[in-house]
Structures are given as structure tokens and as C-alpha cells.
Amino acid sequence: MSMEFNTMREDEDHLPIGGEATFSYEEGDDDDDDSDDDCDYDSSEENNHIQNNNGAPTSELKQHFVAIVISIIAAIIAHSYTHGGYNVWKEELIKDWSAFKLKFSTVGTSNNEVYPTPIDNYAPFAAPSMDGIPTSKRKDILDRAMNRETDGHSVGGHEKARNYRRTRSLSFCPQVNAPSSSTNNNLVEMEFILPIDPSVRILHSYYLADALRVDSNSMVYDYDASSTEQLDKDVGSLGRYTSDTILNEIDTAMATNNNGEGLTIDQVQSILQSHLPASMINRQHICLLHQYTLNKAAGRSIRGTTRVYNRPHVSTFYRDKWNTQQSEPNYKISSASLSFTGYAAKFINLSVNDIHLYWEGGRIQSGPREGKIHTEFVGVIKSMESVGTASFPGHAFYVTPTYDKETALQRWTITEDDSILYYDPFGNMSIEGQKEELQKLSRQGKLSDKQLHNRDAWMLDRSFGRDYLIKTGQVWLANFPQPYLAHDDDVSNVDGTTSSQVSHASDNLATIDVGYEMHMWQSSFIGQTHMVETSSFYYTALPNRLERLTKNDYLPKVEEKRMLEMRKFQSSDPKEKSNSNENDTTPTMPLTLKVLSCAPRVLETKRFLSPVEVQHLIDLATGVKGDVVMKPSTVSASNVKVNNKKEKKVRGGSNARSSTGGWIHREQDVIVDTIFRRIADLLNVDEQLMRDQDRGHDSLENDEELFPTHDRIVEAMQLVRYGPGEEYSAHHDFTYPSIEDRYQPKRYATVLLYLTGESDVVENGVRHSTKFGDKGLEGGGTTFPRAVTTDFHDGIKIKPQSGKAVVFYNVLPDGNFDQLSQHAGEKVEQGVKYVANVWVWDPVVS
Asked: Is pTM, for the whole model, over 0.85?
């Protein structure tokens, strides 16, 4: 049997730069191919001769040879401790795993008594909160929740949120076969190496949070409580399901049963089953804890695998031009160097206090503050949290205490390769020194267990980010771990098209893998097209009455009746003006998505809105209809809070975005509702995920708050008006979630709807598409300045066209944020530009 491992890092404090070393292990082979020469030798010219005049080796050479032998022996000993020990662990784990895997394969058979249904992805149920429930009853309630019927109701919010698993992309069980890779979405296997402390404790809490379906990871780690009553009060009555409780029991079993040596998988699973119902136990969780028992005493690291995104070579983006296929890149072709050098920067506060983040510019050239340094307040970074902003090479930032903006705690001048910045006042201490200082602060009441847990979570994230950078060449901007996204599996036709029918309502969940993956359209090459079928037809005439929809309007029978009544105002042709389609029973109409960019993933469909729908949205934006209030547009940095209110001002202030905007909800009227349905079909997601979710169920123990409720996955539609001279500078749409949030909510896709196009004019609130000479819209295009091409140094530019929709993804297929999704709204040179933005989240709106 042969297995390969990446030796990217054994100690998180030492990171190999610029490459990835691999070694192949054959069972029974303990040979060491590596050696480190630590010997000293005289480098003078006369001692560099390796032979004397008679051709015999000199004494210096003999000494050098002896030193080399000693170094090799020392390297072998060191290697046997770090890697050789891992090989021993691997043999033990594979031996246990062979029997363990067989027992897993018997799920649903009569052999389940000992190993009842542990699975990779937990069964779709909503686990209750344990608030106010006596410890003795908790396991019974969890068991009941596992098996209860929902009668078709939505339990605890939409199905996608209920089935979300933050840990679902992780594997800690040994892979006997060679790692698999997906050529369709460029996800490849990556091994990562994590320090055993604090990684196991944090990952263990993540698995428990997924199993219990709690919103925050802080609900499952152990507080320092002296009694059950105090523990219940502090952690929301989760009691014996806390993570440290289980780890302590494992440690005790190791000490009493195995003299401190590792436990078997059977023993680990038995301990977990004493705390949780079997169907809540994930086998990767068991393997993680099994590694912990085998590696803890020896101080070895934890190894796991996940799938990460390797961006394809640029030559594969041009199949017709270079006659290449995705699997056959032409490395002689290179991408054009980009003139735009901006990127996302992320700042993480590892101190016990909140801090202020400032951007520092050059000296002010004129005015009352001439000669002083220009600074801009970016925002507050909460303790053990992060904030992000757009930046450029050479930008300078600094942080200060919240009470003293003149005292800089730390300064940075950043580059793209070093765009994740940590403020850590304990960073220069030794590991033992850090522990002592943190324990001291904890005893003084200055550091809570929640803060300590989040600090350790950032340490875990930082360790993974190093391996990710080495493997992919990309900065890890998200918070580890992240589940990867789903893709269509359609095969491209000869003409570069794919045929993919998208049905409405809940049928889509079948293509989303039990409802917790978000679909992402393939963008294998520029010009690739996807055919989408939608039943949300174009409105070509206005209904007689337009009223705000209520929740009762979304009841199945009421909804079906309304949609049938609206068909007489609709058509499959966006420009059809008559009502000749009144008796049309065609179930769907086609939409064509075309790939404009592969990196980032940008697609467009030109006939997404009808002229009637365009004018209706403009009427809402101009106040002719509805109650939409247009206000100056704002930009907010991620997670920026001031006095518990969202901070809207960022570096550049109003110069970053100079427009007016307003918000309309899906329930505004039937036309807006239909546009949201069409957007859901365009993205291949269930439109019901874009609705508010009711509990809709009978509670356990007569407690209406037993199950959490999660909201929709889409924000309200933002209508934006740009006048002459107004623009939106380059920015990202993604935000940075709290490290504590189990859902890690993120804007995964943006849908941009153009209401006015080039040469269009809006007079008295009415859009005209005829040529109006110097009155028509000029400028106002959308640019992606970091888009990878072979020809253009400024990325790609999309021209405004009335009725067109542009879809782009803010995340990569592996869940990381896409740096290249940075985009800008060009300055409007003339006329007025109207657009609408719809942001879709995964798995819930923050």
C-alpha cells in the first residue's frame, strides 16, 4: 500500500516559502531521504580543495565527511520522531479504520446495534436549543428531535440553513486510495497540518456546534464553572455537551486504560455516544479525536484534508483562440499584466480590548491642516474579531486604543502577499509566556473564555491559511473552515453551450445536495453559455392593481391562483405588447447566460427584464410608485461598529460612492416578486430560500423558542441612481463574518440589473431608448479591473444595456473570498444611470 503526504509544515511557527515538498511512504519503509547539514567548516580557499597533490583526501575532507555522517544520523532521529512517528500512527489508524469502515457500511442493516448510523453529513433535522431544559432530559429531547415528523413544515428556518455544516468539507480519516480531484470545478485535494493545541479543541467545538445546530460556536465550549448550575447559566444550559467535557473524558480514558497511549476508534466513538445521539456523530469527528489520542503524548501535529480551488491557466479561457482544452493548458501563453493593483486587506485584533483602525495618507498640501498627516478612520475592530477594507500596495494603516487616537499601537505598510494583518500584543512572547499572560488576564477578569476561544480559533485559521497559500498561491481571506460550493455537472456541447433546465420552487433542492450547497455556474472558458429555463415570464403589461404582498399571498393555493391570473399580463417575449398570450400554457421560457470572465466568474444575460419591468423599477426609484426613499449611497467596512451602530463611513468617505439609492423588498408587488423568482432561477437556487421563514411547527415541551428561526438568503433589492460625475470606486461585495458565527454568512453572488443603457435618457421619470444626441447616457460601465485575460491590462468592462443582468460570484468554489471579484462603477460622463443590485447570501443573510 502506498500513500503520499505533503510535508508542508510540522511546526506552525516555521513555514516553508515558495514551494511544496512531498514524500512517498511505502508500508514498512522507514528510510529517510532528507538531511540537514548543520556542521561548520572552514570556507577558506586552501581548505576547499578536496584532494592533496597525490590525489588523496585531505584531513579537512575527512573531518567534513564525519560531520556529514553525524548530521545524517541526527536528521534520521529527528525525522523518526516527527514523521516516523506519524507513520506509526498512520499504520495504527489504517488498521483500526479497516474495521471501522466496514461497520459504517452496515448502516441500515441488522448490524447497527454497536455502530448506529454515524455518517459523513448528518441527518437533516433541527436540533433544539437546550435553554432551560434539565440536563437529565436533554439527550431524550435530542433523540426525539432526530426522529420527529415535521409534517412538511419548515422547522427552525429554511432547509438550507438547517442542513448547513461548517465542517462538511473536512476529512481527518485516512485515505487508503489516492486523493481524488474534480476537473469540472478545479477543486483538488489538499492536506493541511495543524498544531494539536489549540486545533483539536476548536475543531471539536465546531463539530459539536454543527451536530447541535446552534448558531454560535461559543455555546459548546467549556467555561470555567465550578458547578452545573453556574455552567448552565454561563453557556446557555448546554451542560455536558460542552467540548472540554468530552476531551477531558478522553484524556481520563487514555490515562487509566492505556497508560497515556492512544485510544482505539471504538473507544473514541463510545465516549461520544455517551454524550450525543448516534445520528449526531460524524465519523470525521471521530477520526479527529482518534488522531488526538494517538498524537497528543508525542506532541505530533494533526493532519487533515479538504478540497481547495486551483485557478486554471489563462490559456484554457480561450478555447477557440488557442485551441486548448481545460485539461491541456498552453503554458507558453501568459496573462496580461494588470495596471490596477488594488486588493482586499483584512485586519484581525488578537488583543483583549477593542481598537480603532486608521488609514494613513501623505501630508496635506494646503488648508488649515497643511503639513499634517492625512488620516481616515476605517472602523472599530472588536476584540478577537476582524475588519476588512480595499487597499493598494504601499498603503499604511495603524491601530490605536479606542480612547486615544494619537497613540499608535502598531503600524503596517502592506503588500498583497501580506494582506492579512494581526495585531497581537502577545505575539513576541514564547508559547509558554503567552499562556501565562492569558491565564493571568483570565484570573483578573480581563479575558473571558469566549475571547480565549475566539483567539484560539484565529490561531487555527492562521495555520490553515499558510498551507492554503502554499498550495494555491492565494491568500486565505475567509475564516476556516468553509464548506465548498456546488457546481453544475453539465457537459459542454461542441458549440460551447450547456443545456440546464432549472425548475422553480422546491424542486431545485435536489440539485443542491440536501439543501446546504449553493450552486455556482461553470465558467470554464470565455463565451461558454448556459441555457436556463424559468417559469417567471416577462411582464409586458401592467396589472390593474399593484399591491404589497403579504405572507398569506404566499400560501400555495393563493400563490397558484395569483400566478395564473398574472399570465394574461405576461409573455415569453419581453417586447410583446399585446395580450395574445392570455391562453398560453407554455410552462417555461429560456434565458441564456454567457461567460464574460473566468477569473473572476462573471456572466451576463441580455434579455432578463422587459421594458415594462424596467420602467416599473425606475418608477419606484423616482417616487412615481411605491414608497421607496432614495438617499445618498453609503459604503460600510465589514464588521465595523461604533456605539453598537453600523459605521457607514470608510476611507474616502463620499468620494468612494457618489450616488443615491433606495431599497425595495420582494413583497413590494407582483412584478418585483416575479423578478426575484427569475433571479432564483438564474442562480439555480430555490426561490423559497428568498422568503422569510416561519417556525411553522409544534414546539417540544411547549416551548415556542425551542428552535431557532433563520431568515431568507437574499437582501432587499437596491435601486441606485448615478448622475453626471458620479461613480463607485473599485470595491468587493463580500464582508467578513464573525469568527464565532457557525454559519459564516457571506454574499456569495451579486446580480446587477441595468435599467438604463448607453444613449438612454430618462425624462420626467420615463426611459427612452431612442438616440437623444448629447442627452443620452455616456459612461457608467461596470469594470472588473483584476479580471484575468491575455489581451487587456485593465481587466474587462461591461457596457450598460437596459434589461441586461450580470451575475458574478464573490467567493471561490472552495468557499474562500475571490480577490479578483473587485469591481467598480465608472463615472457617468453624461445623462443618468439607473441600476439595481441584488445580493444573495450563503447560507443566510448576516
From this structure: no
